[in-house]
Amino acid sequence: MIDSKKTYTVGISSYWGTLTPPLQHLAAGDVVISQQFESLIRRNERGIIEPLAAKTWEFSADRLTLRFKIDTSRRFSDGSYLRAVDFKKAWEEGLKMTPISSNSSLSDGLANVKGFARFNETKEIAGVRAIGEDVLELELAKPVRMFLEYLAGQRFSVYKISAGNIIGTGAYILQEKDQVLTLTPNPYYAEGVPQLTNVKIVVALPPVAPDKLKSGEIDALLMA
After folding, report:
1. Cα Rg for the chain, rounded, in angstroms?
2. Residue 152 region, left (φ>0) first, then alpha (ψ -120 to 50), else beta?
3. Which of 134, 156, 182, 210 is the one with CA 20 to 30 A from 51?
Protein backbone atom coordinates (compact mmCIF):
# COMPACT_ATOMS: atom_id res chain seq x y z
CA MET A 1 0.00 0.00 0.00
CA ILE A 2 1.34 3.43 -0.95
CA ASP A 3 1.73 5.94 1.87
CA SER A 4 1.02 9.37 0.37
CA LYS A 5 2.98 11.08 3.16
CA LYS A 6 6.14 9.02 2.82
CA THR A 7 9.12 10.08 0.74
CA TYR A 8 10.12 7.16 -1.49
CA THR A 9 13.81 6.92 -2.37
CA VAL A 10 14.55 5.27 -5.70
CA GLY A 11 18.01 4.15 -6.73
CA ILE A 12 19.40 4.14 -10.26
CA SER A 13 22.48 2.29 -11.46
CA SER A 14 24.57 5.33 -12.47
CA TYR A 15 24.54 9.12 -12.44
CA TRP A 16 22.07 10.58 -14.93
CA GLY A 17 24.06 13.59 -16.13
CA THR A 18 22.31 16.60 -17.61
CA LEU A 19 18.55 17.10 -17.26
CA THR A 20 18.36 19.12 -20.49
CA PRO A 21 16.66 16.89 -23.10
CA PRO A 22 18.65 17.76 -26.27
CA LEU A 23 21.94 17.24 -24.44
CA GLN A 24 21.04 13.95 -22.76
CA HIS A 25 22.95 10.89 -24.00
CA LEU A 26 23.02 8.39 -21.13
CA ALA A 27 20.75 5.41 -20.54
CA ALA A 28 20.23 6.40 -16.91
CA GLY A 29 19.56 9.97 -18.00
CA ASP A 30 16.88 8.91 -20.45
CA VAL A 31 15.06 7.05 -17.69
CA VAL A 32 15.25 10.00 -15.33
CA ILE A 33 14.24 12.83 -17.66
CA SER A 34 11.27 10.83 -18.95
CA GLN A 35 9.67 11.66 -15.60
CA GLN A 36 9.58 15.38 -16.54
CA PHE A 37 9.70 15.59 -20.33
CA GLU A 38 7.61 13.97 -23.05
CA SER A 39 8.47 13.19 -26.66
CA LEU A 40 5.98 12.97 -29.51
CA ILE A 41 5.93 9.18 -29.28
CA ARG A 42 7.50 6.49 -27.14
CA ARG A 43 8.24 2.76 -27.04
CA ASN A 44 6.05 0.81 -24.65
CA GLU A 45 7.09 -2.21 -22.59
CA ARG A 46 6.76 -4.46 -25.64
CA GLY A 47 8.91 -2.20 -27.81
CA ILE A 48 5.97 -0.91 -29.85
CA ILE A 49 5.83 2.79 -30.70
CA GLU A 50 2.76 4.47 -29.22
CA PRO A 51 1.40 8.03 -28.85
CA LEU A 52 2.61 10.36 -26.13
CA ALA A 53 2.55 14.11 -26.76
CA ALA A 54 1.21 13.40 -30.26
CA LYS A 55 -2.20 11.75 -30.48
CA THR A 56 -1.70 10.45 -34.02
CA TRP A 57 0.76 10.56 -36.90
CA GLU A 58 0.83 9.67 -40.57
CA PHE A 59 3.26 9.59 -43.47
CA SER A 60 2.47 10.90 -46.92
CA ALA A 61 2.27 8.36 -49.74
CA ASP A 62 5.84 9.12 -50.83
CA ARG A 63 7.13 8.78 -47.23
CA LEU A 64 8.65 12.25 -47.38
CA THR A 65 6.22 14.10 -45.11
CA LEU A 66 5.36 13.08 -41.56
CA ARG A 67 2.47 14.86 -39.87
CA PHE A 68 1.76 14.69 -36.12
CA LYS A 69 -1.45 15.72 -34.39
CA ILE A 70 -0.34 17.26 -31.08
CA ASP A 71 -2.26 16.60 -27.87
CA THR A 72 -2.92 20.23 -26.93
CA SER A 73 -4.67 19.23 -23.70
CA ARG A 74 -1.22 18.56 -22.22
CA ARG A 75 0.21 21.32 -20.07
CA PHE A 76 3.65 22.40 -18.93
CA SER A 77 4.26 22.67 -15.20
CA ASP A 78 3.71 26.44 -15.38
CA GLY A 79 0.15 25.81 -16.59
CA SER A 80 0.68 26.74 -20.24
CA TYR A 81 -0.75 24.44 -22.89
CA LEU A 82 1.37 22.43 -25.29
CA ARG A 83 1.38 23.64 -28.90
CA ALA A 84 3.00 22.30 -32.06
CA VAL A 85 5.40 25.23 -32.21
CA ASP A 86 6.85 24.21 -28.82
CA PHE A 87 8.45 21.17 -30.45
CA LYS A 88 9.94 23.23 -33.27
CA LYS A 89 11.35 25.75 -30.79
CA ALA A 90 12.72 23.04 -28.48
CA TRP A 91 14.54 21.24 -31.28
CA GLU A 92 15.97 24.37 -32.89
CA GLU A 93 17.14 25.75 -29.54
CA GLY A 94 18.65 22.36 -28.73
CA LEU A 95 20.70 22.41 -31.92
CA LYS A 96 22.23 25.73 -30.83
CA MET A 97 23.53 24.19 -27.59
CA THR A 98 27.08 22.89 -27.37
CA PRO A 99 26.96 19.07 -27.35
CA ILE A 100 28.43 17.28 -24.33
CA SER A 101 28.82 13.93 -26.08
CA SER A 102 30.26 12.65 -29.33
CA ASN A 103 26.78 11.80 -30.61
CA SER A 104 25.70 15.40 -30.81
CA SER A 105 22.31 16.50 -29.53
CA LEU A 106 19.52 16.17 -32.11
CA SER A 107 21.62 16.06 -35.24
CA ASP A 108 21.37 12.32 -35.85
CA GLY A 109 17.64 12.52 -36.49
CA LEU A 110 17.10 16.03 -37.78
CA ALA A 111 19.89 15.72 -40.36
CA ASN A 112 17.32 13.90 -42.48
CA VAL A 113 14.93 16.88 -42.50
CA LYS A 114 14.88 19.46 -45.29
CA GLY A 115 16.68 22.66 -44.36
CA PHE A 116 18.94 21.08 -41.74
CA ALA A 117 22.07 21.63 -43.84
CA ARG A 118 21.48 25.39 -43.69
CA PHE A 119 20.69 25.56 -39.97
CA ASN A 120 23.93 27.32 -39.02
CA GLU A 121 23.05 30.02 -41.50
CA THR A 122 19.28 30.32 -41.03
CA LYS A 123 18.96 29.23 -37.36
CA GLU A 124 15.85 27.26 -38.21
CA ILE A 125 14.91 24.06 -40.01
CA ALA A 126 12.55 24.86 -42.83
CA GLY A 127 11.32 21.28 -43.00
CA VAL A 128 9.94 21.41 -39.45
CA ARG A 129 6.65 23.31 -39.59
CA ALA A 130 4.01 24.13 -36.99
CA ILE A 131 0.64 24.36 -38.74
CA GLY A 132 -1.88 26.00 -36.48
CA GLU A 133 -1.77 25.01 -32.82
CA ASP A 134 -1.94 21.25 -33.13
CA VAL A 135 -0.14 20.03 -36.27
CA LEU A 136 3.60 19.46 -36.51
CA GLU A 137 4.85 18.57 -39.98
CA LEU A 138 8.28 17.22 -40.87
CA GLU A 139 9.47 17.15 -44.47
CA LEU A 140 12.30 14.73 -45.14
CA ALA A 141 15.00 15.10 -47.78
CA LYS A 142 14.63 11.38 -48.56
CA PRO A 143 12.66 8.47 -47.07
CA VAL A 144 14.21 7.21 -43.83
CA ARG A 145 13.02 3.78 -42.73
CA MET A 146 13.79 4.17 -39.01
CA PHE A 147 12.89 7.84 -38.65
CA LEU A 148 10.18 7.31 -36.00
CA GLU A 149 12.73 5.58 -33.76
CA TYR A 150 14.71 8.82 -33.55
CA LEU A 151 11.66 10.80 -32.46
CA ALA A 152 10.86 8.31 -29.69
CA GLY A 153 14.15 9.21 -27.96
CA GLN A 154 14.18 11.43 -24.89
CA ARG A 155 16.46 14.02 -26.51
CA PHE A 156 13.54 14.88 -28.80
CA SER A 157 11.27 15.70 -25.85
CA VAL A 158 9.48 19.02 -25.70
CA TYR A 159 10.54 21.62 -23.13
CA LYS A 160 10.43 25.35 -22.60
CA ILE A 161 12.09 27.94 -20.36
CA SER A 162 9.89 29.42 -17.63
CA ALA A 163 11.22 31.74 -14.91
CA GLY A 164 14.74 30.59 -15.78
CA ASN A 165 13.93 26.89 -15.42
CA ILE A 166 13.57 24.19 -18.06
CA ILE A 167 10.10 22.71 -17.68
CA GLY A 168 8.14 19.90 -19.33
CA THR A 169 4.72 18.33 -19.64
CA GLY A 170 5.53 15.10 -17.80
CA ALA A 171 4.32 13.78 -14.47
CA TYR A 172 6.97 15.42 -12.29
CA ILE A 173 9.12 18.50 -11.81
CA LEU A 174 12.78 17.57 -11.26
CA GLN A 175 15.12 19.49 -8.96
CA GLU A 176 18.71 18.40 -8.34
CA LYS A 177 21.00 19.13 -5.41
CA ASP A 178 24.23 17.26 -4.60
CA GLN A 179 23.37 14.50 -7.09
CA VAL A 180 20.00 13.88 -5.47
CA LEU A 181 16.87 14.45 -7.50
CA THR A 182 13.65 15.55 -5.84
CA LEU A 183 10.50 14.84 -7.82
CA THR A 184 7.32 16.80 -7.15
CA PRO A 185 4.12 16.28 -9.15
CA ASN A 186 3.36 18.52 -12.11
CA PRO A 187 -0.01 19.95 -10.97
CA TYR A 188 -1.13 20.22 -14.60
CA TYR A 189 -0.12 16.74 -15.73
CA ALA A 190 -2.63 15.47 -18.30
CA GLU A 191 -2.97 12.02 -16.71
CA GLY A 192 -3.59 13.24 -13.17
CA VAL A 193 -1.56 13.16 -9.98
CA PRO A 194 0.91 10.24 -9.90
CA GLN A 195 0.53 7.66 -7.14
CA LEU A 196 3.91 8.56 -5.67
CA THR A 197 3.85 12.22 -4.71
CA ASN A 198 7.09 12.43 -2.72
CA VAL A 199 10.03 10.87 -4.54
CA LYS A 200 13.81 11.16 -4.52
CA ILE A 201 16.19 9.53 -7.00
CA VAL A 202 19.76 8.70 -5.95
CA VAL A 203 22.65 6.78 -7.45
CA ALA A 204 22.81 3.19 -6.21
CA LEU A 205 25.70 1.42 -7.91
CA PRO A 206 25.02 -2.25 -8.77
CA PRO A 207 27.53 -3.73 -6.24
CA VAL A 208 25.81 -2.01 -3.29
CA ALA A 209 22.23 -1.62 -4.53
CA PRO A 210 20.94 -4.95 -3.07
CA ASP A 211 22.26 -4.06 0.39
CA LYS A 212 20.66 -0.62 0.17
CA LEU A 213 17.34 -2.27 -0.65
CA LYS A 214 17.63 -4.72 2.27
CA SER A 215 18.52 -1.98 4.74
CA GLY A 216 15.68 0.26 3.60
CA GLU A 217 18.04 3.04 2.50
CA ILE A 218 16.27 2.88 -0.86
CA ASP A 219 12.76 1.65 -1.55
CA ALA A 220 13.11 0.61 -5.18
CA LEU A 221 15.51 0.43 -8.11
CA LEU A 222 15.11 2.03 -11.52
CA MET A 223 16.76 -0.10 -14.16
CA ALA A 224 18.54 1.72 -16.97
Report:
1. 18
2. alpha
3. 182
